[in-house]
Write a structure and sequence with these properties.
The chain has helices at about 20, 30-35, 75-85, 100-115, 115-120, 160-165, 170-180, 185-195, 205-210, 280-285, 325, 340-345, and strands spanning about 55, 65, 90-95, 135, 150-155, 215-220, 235, 240-245, 255, 260-265, 275, 295, 305-310, 320, 335-340. The strands form three sheets. An eight-stranded mixed sheet has the order 2-3-11-8-13-6-5-4. Strands 1-10-9-12-7 form a five-stranded mixed sheet, with no helix packed on it. The protein has a two-stranded antiparallel ribbon with strand order 14-15. Helices cover about 25% and strands about 20% of the residues. By secondary structure, the chain is α+β, with helices and mostly antiparallel strands. It has twelve helices and 15 strands. Strand 9 and strand 10 form a beta hairpin. It binds N-oxalylglycine and nickel (II) ion. Nickel (II) ion binds next to loops.
Length: about 375
């Protein structure tokens, strides 16, 4: 059983973990992993239907891989829009973000999670002086029936001043560099995707609706004693406009194919970035572009990191289908919702596949 005053992690096997040790004291799931637990604590046991043993992994299928060198050519633009419609997920190479920048942010992620617990705990929900910087484990532990085997540092970009005041020194510059070096790519993708919806002009109202804010997460998935019983991240779709995801070479991300129980592994490709459409763009495109469910398997022998850059509408934006998309008489599938309300809804419940978007749906479909 859990020790009641678990200030150290010296116990070798717990059925039930002392959650304050994991979360509030800064050790995280990584701390549990490093104790050399022989078996997975009960809180992390996922219900059978969420485990990977119940999923069919299609090993002959992969998501599209797109070379972005000639991003403005009609062929490349078409493959991007087709991938957004049919897969919701694709990988890109020759994307223009320098590979050294990607290496540096991966190293910075390892550096942050290698800090002693006393350092990391400064960024926990209880201790962080701002809600724009937050270290967490699992997703929303207080409401989850089963926990996910993951730690993360979430960094919301407010301003240059807030960043230099609050982001952790060991990863601040590298994360900011990754964010800034991705801006050209973000605008290229937006340009192509929006053109594919017949939207001709991105004015001062549309731009913040599409690209008004940024959040970078540094994700750490420690080695797990019983990977088959849990997940790294449970089934969810991102709420972003789109996400740029950098993963290391370990693998483990899976994407749902169509709406059945078939899943596709997103095999790591060195130097590539993964792009996935989020709920905000699914709503703005009235369902043309798909925000696809994905999840991450836990790993029994290696630690994995990933660094998603969530390109989000600004919190004050109203999400709704573009009039151009409805111009042909198509019925709106989603009602207008305030982006901040949509995010709040997402962050107050456990991961539950595609259910977040019901918040904006008109009727049942
Ligand atoms: C996420 C996510 C996938 C990964 O953070 O939203 O889906 O590979 N991450 O870590
Ligand atoms: Ni995701």
């Amino acid at each position: 059983m859990a020790p009641t005053n678990g200030s150290t992690l010296a116990t070798e096997s717990w059925d039930i973990v002392d959650f304050s040790t994991v979360i509030n004291k800064g050790h995280g799931v990584k701390g549990l992993s490093e104790m050399g637990l022989k078996s997975l604590p009960k809180q992390f046991h996922q219900p059978l239907e969420e485990r990977f043993s119940e999923k069919k992994i299609l090993d002959q299928v992969s998501i599209p891989l797109i070379d972005m060198s000639n991003w403005e050519s009609p062929e490349v633009a078409k493959s991007i829009c087709d991938a957004a419609e049919n897969w919701g997920f694709f990988q890109i190479v020759n994307h223009g973000v320098p590979l050294e920048v990607l290496e540096r942010v991966k190293e910075a992620t390892h550096r942050f999670f290698a800090l002693p617990a006393e350092e990391k705990r400064k960024y926990s929900k209880e201790n962080s002086p701002t809600n724009k910087v937050r270290l967490g484990s699992s997703f929303v532990p207080l409401v989850e029936k089963a926990l996910e085997w993951k730690d993360f540092l979430s960094l919301f970009y407010g301003s240059e001043e807030e960043t230099s005041a609050f982001w952790p020194p060991v990863c601040k510059d590298e994360t900011l560099e990754y964010m800034k070096s991705s801006e050209v790519l973000i605008r290229r993708l937006m340009h192509v995707l929006v053109k594919g919806l017949n939207v001709k002009r991105i004015d001062e109202i549309r731009e913040p609706m599409l690209l008004g804010s940024r959040r970078v997460n540094l994700n750490y998935y420690p080695m797990c004693p019983n990977p088959e019983l849990t997940v790294g991240v449970g089934r969810h779709s991102d709420i972003s406009t789109f996400t740029i995801l950098l993963q290391d070479d370990i693998g483990g991300l899976h994407v749902r194919k169509d709406s059945g129980n078939d899943w596709i592994h997103v095999a790591p490709i060195s130097g590539s970035l993964i792009i996935n459409i989020g709920d905000a763009l699914q709503i703005m495109s009235n369902g043309r572009y798909k925000s696809i469910e994905h999840c991450v398997i836990a790993n029994g022998s290696q630690n994995r990191i990933s660094v998603p850059l969530f390109v989000n509408p600004k919190p004050e934006a109203i999400l709704c289908p573009f009039p151009e998309v409805l111009a042909n008489g198509e019925k709106p599938l989603y009602k207008p919702v305030l982006c901040a309300d949509y995010s709040r809804h997402f962050y107050t419940k456990a991961h539950d596949g595609k259910k977040t978007i019901d918040f904006a749906k008109i009727g049942d479909f």
